[in-house]
Every structure is written in C-alpha cells, then in structure tokens.
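Side project, low priority. Logging it here so it doesn't get lost.
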Amino acid sequence: MGRHVIDPEQLDAAAKAGALIESLPWLRRFDGKTIVVKFGGNAMVDDGLTRSFAEDMAYLRQVGVMPVVVHGGGPQISAALAAAGIPSEFRGGLRVTSADAIQVVRSVLASEVGPKIARMISEHGAPAQPVSGETRGLFAATRRSTIVDGEEVDLGLVGEVTFVDPTVILAIIAAGQIPVVSSIAPNEAEPGQSLNVNADSAAASLAIALGAEKLVILTDVAGLYSDWPNRDSLVSSIDTDELRALLPSLESGMIPKMTACLDAVDGGVPKAAIIDGRVPHSILLEAFTDSGSGTEVIPHTEAS
C-alpha cells in the first residue's frame, strides 16, 4: 500500500476548524457581554494594524459580544502640537497639557481620530459611533497631578474621571452599534473647560460603570515584564496584590496602563489584560484562544 499524502490545504483547513472549535467556550462566555478595548500606540498609526483591529471589532459584534472602544491618540496629538509650535512633555507617563495644548488635543481626538476609527470599523460591517467624554454627560473629571521621584508634579489641564453616566454608551450598543470614545472630559469644577484624560484610565472607569466582562488595553510591548528589559521576565498572569507591589518599580510609560488594569479589577471587572497591539488580530487571540496573549490581571481571591 502506498503512503497517504496529506494535502497541505487540508491541513490548513483542519487548523482553521480547530481554531473555531477552540473559540467555542469563549464565545459562550462572552455572548451578550461587554468588552472595553483601549486602542492606541503603534496600532493607531499603522493602517494595516488599524484595519485588523477594525475587523476584530466587527467580528466581536457579529458573534454577540458588545465591544466598546476607548482610544488615545498620542502620535497624532504629538504631530499636531509640533505643527502648532507647542512642545510635548511627559511626566510619569502622562502628557503635560497647557491651555493651548488642550484645544489641539480635543480637536485631534474628537474630530479626527475618533471618526476615523469609527469609519474603519463601519467599513467592516459593524456600524460604529464616535463620541467623547463630553457627549451627553458621559464623563466628569477633576484635575490631577502625578508623583515623579517622590515629588508632586503639576500636569496642567489633565484630569481623572470622577463620574461616569453610561447612558449614551448603552443607547449606542442597544442600537446595534459600536461606541468609539475619545478621552476628553469636562472639568466638573470649571464648566466649559475640557480636561485631557489618560485613555487607559478612562477605559477602566468606563469598564467599571458598564459592568464589563473584561478590559483589554493594547500596548506596544508583548505584555508586562517583571524585570524590564529582561525579555524572559514576561508575566502571563498576575493578581491584584502582586501587581500593587510591583507597580512602583515599573517603567513610567507602563504605570498608567497597569494602574488602569488594577483599578478596573478592583472596581469589579472580572479580568483585565494588556496585549501587544503590534500583532494583527491580537484582540481575537486574547479573547478566543486558550493561550490568550499578553498579561492578564485577575482578582487576588481568584489567584489564591
């Protein structure tokens, strides 16, 4: 008897079938549930990665998951500020925002970046609606500072969300659309003044208010490293107590992201994850495969 030669196309088809079967329990788990996804970093300025992200969002909505996108716009904001002759400065991983800068930030996020993301998602078959934290009272915020090397630093017109009214988001979801939220919020202490809110933090606040099943934050690294830059120190899962202890030693740009994950899980979101947005379809790998991707933050009681 001759050997049976397996057709490579059959192997490819079998692998695809295997991936579909592997996704089944995850599809059941997330059916009808909300996932808040923070979109930012390199994925926002690479058209190919933006398209794969848009496809992921459309896929999630098609299979019964309710994605909510919260976006930053760091590269676009930095470019617009440079064009306007306004310097960019970061302290503790957060952008110092002057009165001149806030107008540029607000315009870039709400009028440029948000509508572009929504348009690309809509082109893949899932209608998307851009809004900002100023839309129908979605967010209220107060000014915040940060601590750098043990000293308090003034960040200008930078805020933290103090109140969330998710009514507008729930209405968009009920209408069969995907909300795309820019992280600008009104200053509750000074009506008419806008504040620049870190998008990671805004996503965490919104995830808590929506009772989301998960918060996912896209980054420009593979995940959390316990001993950066040692590539072997990548952490696949960490509980809230372990993260709290590790937080002060992290690289400054990672602190807002991991703080957002910690805040979300402390606030009742079952799980939060940071994943590598440079990997096409990383959202689907995280949501629907056994191995997941990146670093997942879980409650301490679950880990113990």
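Brief comment: DSSP finds ten helices and 16 strands in the chain.
Revisit when time allows.
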